[in-house]
Every structure is written in C-alpha cells, then in structure tokens.
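Predicting holo structure, zinc ion bound.
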Amino acid sequence: MNSVSPLEPREIFQDWVTLRIKIEKWQIRDDFAFTVRVKDNNRVDYICRINGCDWRVFASRNQQSEIQLKILHERHSCIG
Ligand SMILES: [Zn+2]
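Done. Tokens:
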C-alpha cells in the first residue's frame, strides 16, 4: 500500500471541491474512509472514520483568503 500523500504541506487550493476530490481519490487508492468533522465557509476538517486514528487533513482560509492546507497527518494509526 502506497502511503505517500497526494497533498503538499501548505498547499493552496482554488476551491473546496478541488481539495475534496483529491482526498476522495486518496481514500480510494489507500482504501480508507474519511468523515467531515467541521465544514463551513472558512475551514474544513477531515478525519479518518476510525475513532482515534491520527489521519487528518485541515484546511482554512489564510490572510489572503486563499484556501490553504494547515494540518496534514497522512499516516493512519488505524491500519498500521
Ligand atoms: Zn485511519
């Protein structure tokens, strides 16, 4: 199983959908499921569906109002 992230730390996205599509492709490739913990106009917080897993992607608007990746924990503690 390839665990290399398709995302770059501090990556900037044109819109929320672009980020979500990348994460959806990632979940299919690596066979896990994510859930949305927080989503509003300024931030989104994706976590692994398995309780207690370390995997997390958090993005929010920066000072230029761009959507920017702020937290990227690409390793799953749930699947080793
Ligand atoms: Zn996980």
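The pocket of zinc ion is lined by residues 32, 48, 50, 53, 55, 76, 78-79 (CB under 6 Å).
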